[in-house]
Design goal:
By secondary structure, the protein is mainly beta. The protein has one domain (6-106): Hypothetical Protein Aq_1857, Chain: A, CATH 2.60.300.12. The protein is 12% helix and 46% strand. The strands form 2 sheets. Strands 4-5-2-3-9-8 form a 6-stranded mixed β-sheet. Strand 6 (76-82) and strand 7 (85-91) form a beta hairpin. Residues 6-102 form the Core domain. One of its GO terms (molecular function) is iron ion binding. It comes from Pseudoponticoccus marisrubri.
């Protein structure tokens, strides 16, 4: 069974800060082939599609397409603001290994 990813309060707060919901945008989290480990994350603001899985809180939305859902089942989407930069991060229990940049992984 493919569970939708969990989105942290910190990630929703960041979306609110940048005004994503007011623009009709959502944070799209997708998985594509490529990267140095076989798969890579595509994280961007985008308009939701009709068949997307939508995770919503306080007017902010995160969307995952049906093809990416099995790769993100049980994952946690968070926002990190560290010395090296601020970014959305994914803790993915399905990934068996990942690269140093955190955007590429293998299953």
């Amino acid at each position: 069974m493919n569970l939708p990813p969990k989105v942290t309060d910190r990630a929703f707060a960041r979306l609110s800060e940048i005004g994503a919901g007011a623009e009709g945008q959502a944070l799209r989290v997708a998985v594509e082939g490529g990267g140095c480990s076989g798969f890579q994350y595509d994280i961007r603001l985008d308009a939701p599609a009709e068949d997307d899985i939508v995770i919503e809180e306080a007017g902010q939305r995160v969307v995952v397409d049906p093809v990416s859902l099995p790769f993100l089942s049980g994952a946690v989407i968070d926002f990190a603001d560290e010395l090296i930069g601020a970014r959305f991060v994914i803790e993915n229990p399905n990934a068996t290994s990942s690269c140093g940049c955190g955007t590429s992984f293998s299953i």
